[in-house]
Amino acid sequence: MLTRLEVDGFKNLVDTKIDFGAFTCIAGENGTGKSNVFDAIRFLSLLADRSLLDAAQEVRGVHGERTGDPRDLFWNGYAALNPRVRFAAEMIVPSEVEDDFGRPTTPTITFLRYELSLGYQAPRGSEKIGRLTLLEESLQHINLGDAPRRIPFPHNVNRFRKTVLKGHRSGKAFISTTIEDNQPVIRIHQDGGSRGQPKPSAAYRAPATVVSTVTSADDPTILTARREMQSWRRLALEPSALRTSDRYVDPRAMDANGRHLPATLFRVALGDESTDPEGVYARVSGRLSDLAGVRVRSLRVQEDDTRELLTIQLREASGLELPARSLSEGTLRFLALCVLLEDPTVTGLICMEEPENGIHPANLEAMVRLVEDLAVDPTDAPGVDNPFRQVIINTHSPGIVQLARPDDLLFADTAIRAAPDGSNAHTLRLRPMAETWRAKQPNEMPVTKLDILPYLTTPPGVQISLESA
């Protein structure tokens, strides 16, 4: 669970500090840079799994497309002489993970702060583009005694906080950086504290972060932090992927684009001996029926042994049977989220852009309640019936803003800052609603209903009356 994100120098995120709860809705007009928050989270997740170069090429450039030039990631990257970006992520990590060899391991402590600084090296010799350089990396524990201050969102202390925060650590960080001969040197410190010598490595020529290189249970806390960051995903559900049937040999976990939806529902429904398949199908079809205009009596995964295919079949109230691929794009996306809601193996952080796309305004409330329900309930202990999931969405829909709880809202606009070359540039600004838990944090600039009234008001002249239609 990502409880706090700090970003400085990434795209239009400058000195950005965001506290997250179980569910967060970032709302604002198009062009403010809301998606850059998702890009920063995605970039950190990629850096826990891939090289610096590969991670940079997977993130959208300043114009929305993927490019190979790392300067696209930096604020004012093409004008700055020495661009630099800094990240910090405070997270609650799982209490047990498996290493790359399938061995279970337990972290020393489950409340951690990860910091990372990257620079840019201009191309040399035959190189055509520059590269990212690792300037600083650290992984530190957060004392559990500081939890009341570091986890400010409303939650139950005994059932939630004391369940997810475990362990103890004193002394050195798990990863630290020192400067030797004017160059950064990164060291891994063993979980045992003083036992064993720290493992140093030169950072300047490193092709990847230290976290991404830890694959075994020898460094359990670093590995657990890596697993947590790897679980941060960005859902981009594509209708073509959602409409695809699955072969019997296909993976039974849904991709970020929605592929393998039938296989996922089939796995969840069959589950183990204690799972009631009909109950799973009934809950999914019942939730799908929350949408106005969708008259689903039942659904199930059809097994075609001849072609060895799995397909989701629906039965309408009229008795007509049809495949789920015949549903509208918005309804298909809603169905995919209904299936995720039933899957206890889906944990970690889910980012989703504009969940209202393709949804009729009459169904906005059903969509908002669904994405809220996907997130863990922080008033209860996480478990099979309350998966440890976190959800962040962004939107420009006034309808979503009106339906979301004030505690969950962050309003996005832009502020003007002076760039290093003296020019002015627009940067993202996120502000909480007044009298909510975020508004109590230092240096916040909360908004009121009066502030956001222009955003929630339909522009004059767009109303259509029956007389003028």
From TrEMBL:
<keyword id="KW-0742">SOS response</keyword>
<dbReference type="Pfam" id="PF13476">
    <property type="entry name" value="AAA_23"/>
</dbReference>
<keyword id="KW-0227">DNA damage</keyword>
<dbReference type="Pfam" id="PF13304">
    <property type="entry name" value="AAA_21"/>
</dbReference>
<dbReference type="InterPro" id="IPR027417">
    <property type="entry name" value="P-loop_NTPase"/>
</dbReference>
<protein>
    <submittedName>
        <fullName>AAA family ATPase</fullName>
    </submittedName>
</protein>
<dbReference type="GO" id="GO:0005524">
    <property type="term" value="F:ATP binding"/>
</dbReference>
<dbReference type="GO" id="GO:0000731">
    <property type="term" value="P:DNA synthesis involved in DNA repair"/>
</dbReference>
<dbReference type="InterPro" id="IPR003959">
    <property type="entry name" value="ATPase_AAA_core"/>
</dbReference>
<dbReference type="GO" id="GO:0009432">
    <property type="term" value="P:SOS response"/>
</dbReference>
<feature type="domain" description="Rad50/SbcC-type AAA">
    <location>
        <begin position="4"/>
        <end position="43"/>
    </location>
</feature>
<dbReference type="GO" id="GO:0016887">
    <property type="term" value="F:ATP hydrolysis activity"/>
</dbReference>
<dbReference type="GO" id="GO:0006302">
    <property type="term" value="P:double-strand break repair"/>
</dbReference>
<dbReference type="InterPro" id="IPR038729">
    <property type="entry name" value="Rad50/SbcC_AAA"/>
</dbReference>
<feature type="domain" description="ATPase AAA-type core">
    <location>
        <begin position="113"/>
        <end position="401"/>
    </location>
</feature>
